From TrEMBL:
The keyword Methyltransferase applies. One of its GO terms (biological process) is methylation. This is Class I SAM-dependent methyltransferase. Keywords: Methyltransferase, Transferase. InterPro entries: Methyltransf_11, SAM-dependent_MTases_sf, Thiol_S-MT. Signal peptide: none annotated. GO terms for molecular function: S-adenosylmethionine-dependent methyltransferase activity. Residues 52-145 form the Methyltransferase type domain.
Length: 230
């Protein structure tokens, strides 16, 4: 099925210093902090056509099961997209890396069986619009798999996160915000949230402002049955 290309501004997201650093240390952090295991859990059991937003340098690609027929991976940052293309060649399933932003996905409506957002909602420019786009491109009843970090449950850390979000954190970490509420945003976007669990990454050691995470599954509601007759 061909992609519906929307016009995306050249380098709509451009964080060259962060992207260069992230491409170097993220694979190491994935293994040492146990993030790779969470990625495998996130993607287990998926099948059919999948869209992934904010694919970064492609750390999810190795964990897609063979039952997935195609992954369309959206990544707006030029350097990370180039790394993702290289990673896609080694993936066990077909992966098409596409430039674009989450707020205006360059694909047709109701074209995908599942969608994946993985440590991405923290950095999109508009969370509401991004989730509305994911709902648009999912088939009725399609799954949204999410693994996101956000506002901590404890008050002291939450206060620190809010202060950092208003000051240095987004500037240093590629537009990342630590005080967002991804689960609440998913529910507000009209998804039916299913099983989920909260976790800390890393599970042990010094906590960071981005260590409070949630991993789970939501669905685009199935279309209501149409009644015939008067």
């Amino acid at each position: 099925m061909p992609l519906r290309r929307r016009r995306t501004p050249h380098d709509a997201v451009h964080h060259p210093l962060f992207a260069r650093a992230y491409a170097r240390w993220s694979p190491v952090v994935d293994e040492r902090a146990g993030v790779a295991a969470h990625r495998r859990e996130l993607l287990a059991g998926l099948s059919g056509r999948v869209i992934e937003i904010g694919a970064g340098n492609g750390l999810n690609f190795a964990h897609y099961p063979a039952t997935v027929s195609e992954v369309v991976a959206i990544e707006p940052e030029r350097l990370l997209r180039r790394h993702a293309v290289e990673t896609a060649v080694r993936a066990g399933v077909p992966v098409d890396v596409v430039p674009g932003v989450a707020e205006a996905l360059p694909v047709k409506s109701e074209a995908f069986d599942a969608a994946v957002t993985s440590l991405t909602l923290c950095s999109v420019g508009d969370v509401r619009r991004s989730l509305a786009e994911l709902r648009r491109v999912l088939k009725p009843g399609g799954e949204l798999r999410f693994f996101e970090h956000g506002l901590a449950q404890g008050r002291p850390q939450a206060q620190v996160q809010r202060v950092l979000d208003r000051t240095v954190w987004p500037l240093l970490f590629g537009g990342c915000h630590t005080a967002r509420d991804p689960l609440g945003a998913i529910e507000a976007a009209g998804f039916e949230v299913g099983v989920y669990r909260r976790l800390r990454v890393p599970a042990r050691g010094m906590a960071s402002p981005a260590s409070s995470c949630v991993l789970g599954v939501a669905r685009r509601p199935a279309e209501p049955e149409r009644r015939s007759g008067p």
